[in-house]
């Protein structure tokens, strides 16, 4: 007499039966057969394929492996390993997968931070434009490390901001940049008169870079003002800062920074450009 277990193990299913029962396409089942992941039985006489309960119960396991990100090769390795070495193989495959997923997680975090930083710049620019926030103010600049590259400057802001040389430099370092492009000039007076011949491009990185490749911009108070519109009229905003500093007893440092909130990276419409000018400033004490 056949017991229940033996009867259960003798169930036979066609490929369409398995497809309906397990919500899996026949195309996937045929491919799994081709690569040896789920092998149906075959009648010798007509080569008719049928699946058993053993095959059927593999499908939820495969779906769960797929959910965890295992490749078909890894699944095959896990499913086909013999009982005597299953523990070692599973440990090896799972440890390798956890390492891969950890690296993927780091990559996703970098991409998320890059998108989030750009999104915040869009919101910042929108607020500046809607409120016409172009008043000069003293704000504290929190210090930070920046990847930097010194370059010659010929008044071509687009070439400096969408910087091919800097992009190649970043790629060679295998770095990931985030946040706005910042240009540093040695003299804000020379920037206004068109005599600035050198600039330093600064940008934050998602992960630490070698110290010799970075420059630290120290925490300090700065006179800051947004410039809205084309870079061709940015001199007026510099002059506005200089006038404000004089009236309010502030001494401006020589160096200056241009922080590109919205620029060529985001739009071709120069009327939408938003640039923050930052010049280190100290209060002049009068007696």
UniProtKB/TrEMBL annotation:
Organism taxonomic ancestry: Bacteria, Pseudomonadati, Pseudomonadota, Gammaproteobacteria, Vibrionales
Keyword match DNA-binding: yes
PROSITE patterns in UniProt: HTH_MERR_1, HTH_MERR_2
Keywords per UniProt: DNA-binding
SUPFAM superfamilies in UniProt: Probable bacterial effector-binding domain, Putative DNA-binding domain
Source organism of this protein record: Photobacterium proteolyticum
Domain HTH merR-type span(s) in chain numbering: 12-81
Protein name: MerR family transcriptional regulator
InterPro entries: DNA-bd_dom_put_sf, GyrI-like, MerR-type_HTH_dom, MerR_fam, Reg_factor_effector_dom_sf
PANTHER family: CHROMOSOME-ANCHORING PROTEIN RACA, REDOX-CYCLING DRUG-SENSING TRANSCRIPTIONAL ACTIVATOR SOXR
């Amino acid at each position: 007499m056949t017991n229940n277990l033996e009867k259960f193990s003798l169930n036979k299913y066609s490929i369409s039966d398995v497809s309906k029962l397990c919500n899996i396409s026949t195309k996937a089942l045929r491919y799994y057969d081709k690569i040896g992941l789920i092998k149906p039985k075959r009648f010798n006489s007509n080569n008719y394929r049928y699946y058993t309960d053993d095959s059927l119960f593999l499908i939820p396991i495969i779906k769960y492996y797929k959910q965890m990100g295992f490749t078909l090769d890894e699944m095959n390795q896990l499913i086909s390993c013999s009982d005597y070495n299953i523990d070692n193989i599973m440990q090896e495959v799972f440890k390798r997968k956890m390492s891969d997923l950890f690296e993927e997680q780091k990559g996703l975090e970098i991409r998320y931070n890059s998108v989030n930083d750009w999104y915040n710049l869009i919101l910042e620019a929108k607020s500046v434009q809607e409120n016409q926030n172009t008043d000069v103010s003293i704000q504290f600049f929190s210090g930070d490390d920046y990847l930097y590259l010194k370059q010659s400057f010929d008044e071509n802001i687009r070439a400096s901001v969408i910087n091919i040389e800097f992009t190649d430099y970043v790629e060679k370092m295998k770095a990931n940049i985030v946040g706005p492009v910042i240009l540093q000039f040695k003299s804000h007076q020379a920037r206004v008169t068109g005599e600035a011949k050198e600039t330093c491009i600064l940008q934050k990185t998602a992960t630490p870079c070698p110290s010799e490749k970075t420059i630290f911009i120290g925490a300090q108070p700065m006179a800051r003002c947004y410039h809205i519109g084309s870079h061709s009229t940015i001199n007026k905003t510099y002059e506005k800062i200089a006038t404000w500093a004089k009236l309010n007893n502030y001494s401006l440092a020589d160096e200056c920074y241009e922080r590109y909130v919205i620029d060529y990276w985001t739009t071709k419409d120069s009327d939408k450009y938003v640039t923050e000018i930052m010049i280190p400033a100290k209060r002049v004490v009068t007696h």
